[in-house]
Amino acid sequence: MSELKTEQISVPLPKGDERFDAYLAQPAGAARGGIVVLQEIFGVNADIRGTADWLAGEGYMALAPDLFWRQERNVSLTDGSQAEWQKAFALMTAYDAEAGVADIQASIDTLRARLGQAGAASQKVGTLGFCLGGKMVYLAACRTDGDAHASYYGVGIQDMLAEAQNITAPTLLHIAGQDEFVPPEAQAAIRAGLEDKPLVETHIYAAQDHAFARNGGMHFDADAARLAHGRSLALFQKALG
229 catalytic, yes or no? Predict the structure, then answer.
């Protein structure tokens, strides 16, 4: 990891002069493509930055945008205190997902431009995200021109299944079987609603709870996280290069 290059950059929106911050991790060698990393409700914290670093270690240029910037810039919380949980839920409740999709597209565009400037062989860009970010990955699959998408325990997807007809890139959903935020009836609806979509692959981790891939979290499971990450990397290797 010491050979990775990391920095905070500014992502411009296509209209006006507004910008938001993002954490960029670049591999030591030539990038094999790019991945936009979408945060949980805790902001671009150490775990999300670590995820970007992990992906850079796998050869991808990884960008983690500040999704909450319209409410409060550069939020970085943990799951270690009730006060942080309360703030995180308040930010999620007030989050504008419609505007967030535009931020994700701007992040994809910025990452493609960076890949081009670096002379990368592939300028394809995917998305990967957790919880709130998992929901936004699904919306990115439906509404952006990203080249591949990996969603971890995304919330609320069962209410947006009609949009799946717009998915044009390979999309992977990791669902925790014991997730209180995505109960069994929601899981069943997601599987039924997506089973005829050839570009979408759904995996349910029956014994796992929400956030099973959050390093150090109360529901972290190393084996399940390893399996899910392996599937995501296989998706990106095939779709991005």
Answer: no
